[in-house]
Amino acid sequence: MSNKVTHLAGLLSNELRQWLLDNRWPGFRSQQLFHWVQNRAVTSLTEASNLPQDLRAWLDEYAVFPSVSLRHYQSSQDGTKKYLFTLEDDQTVETVMIPDAQRTTVCVSTQVGCAMGCTFCATGQMGFRRHLNPAEIISQVLYIQSSQQASPVTHVVFMGMGEPLANYEASLKALHLLHDPKGMNISYRRMTVSTCGLVPEIQKLALEKLPITLAVSLHAPDDKRRSTIMPINERYPLAELLPVCRAYADDTSRRLTFEYALVRGFNDSTMDARQLAQQIADIHCHVNLIPVNPVNENYHAPSVPDVDMFLRALTRCGVQASIRRERGADIDGACGQLRQREEGES
Length: 346
Ligand code: SAH
Ligand code: SF4
Fold this sequence. Notes:
By secondary structure, this protein is an alpha/beta fold. The protein has 2 domains: 6-64, Orthogonal Bundle (DNA polymerase, domain 1); 69-326 and 336-345, Aldolase class I (TIM Barrel, Alpha-Beta Barrel), CATH 3.20.20. 37% of the residues lie in helices and 18% in strands. The protein has a 10-stranded mixed sheet, with helices on both faces. β3 (92-99) and β4 form a beta hairpin. The protein is elongated, with a radius of gyration of 21 Å. S-adenosyl-L-homocysteine binds at residues 120-121, 159, 163, 194-196, 217, 259, 261, 290, 292-293, 295, 334-335. S-adenosyl-L-homocysteine binds next to β8 and β10.
């Protein structure tokens, strides 16, 4: 009959239809099934009373979903919730849910670990384990959607563990699944993909012409300093990365985001702000300033007045910028930290 399909949540509606047809089920059942999985976000089909019993029994045998299960959960005083999910092979990833007045944002992981080795990042320090497949990326949102009675997920940011553009095809498919109007129906405009600056993949993404937001992690105003904290800068230095960012913003007509983690005494002076402003002067962009979340004793966030001073210096140079309010500070806020503690990794 069929091979075992383990990733129902990772099938686009046309793929789901084809899979049912291939297995001699009527094609129209795919719409009902897609609705239960992607829109109702159920974690079992026992409620799916519009599906015939024989199809449900068959699905029990040949389909697996969702692709994550909860291992640990933390709730912050500010409403931020952090989930540690176990995957089928017992690897774990983190997902964060950030509620706000008007929005509910989910921050998803795209890889177990990360190969990029940024020195300030807990995920980077654990190295690369494996890519997540689209179902595993999507299931993080589905799980939270299903466990949250009141407010539906409105925004998704690919800013959890891993480098989404190093797992390009799976991340792209996840964007499409999140967007499907018969599924979660999240507008592309409410999705953000964050990258450490993989130049060829940024160029490829520009060709997709999706109105998502691209966020590029910059974190330093010159190559020398960027290379010390982000090894990827050796491969794609600023002279290559910034023109590609400029072209991305021009080609997609979307404002780009630059992320800049402020580290005390390293990249936080007013001179650094001016140098940064010069580097990005003609790019349609917004700078997100993030006081670094200290994952070890080498990194400390600047004081609040110093962060404000940096912001003012940038703004005076005509750069649009804001400080990203720290959320979930009491629950191991930075990506990779909850996992690090649970698994006892350094
Ligand atoms: N790999 C992608 C997306 C995941 S990291 C990227 O690097 O962009 C999401 C964001 O968190 C990135 O901007 C990353 O630089 C930032 N980040 C990681 N560790 C951090 C820390 N300890 N403090 C502040 N920001 C951090
Ligand atoms: Fe990977 Fe992003 Fe962490 Fe760098 S900051 S190690 S690219 S997850």
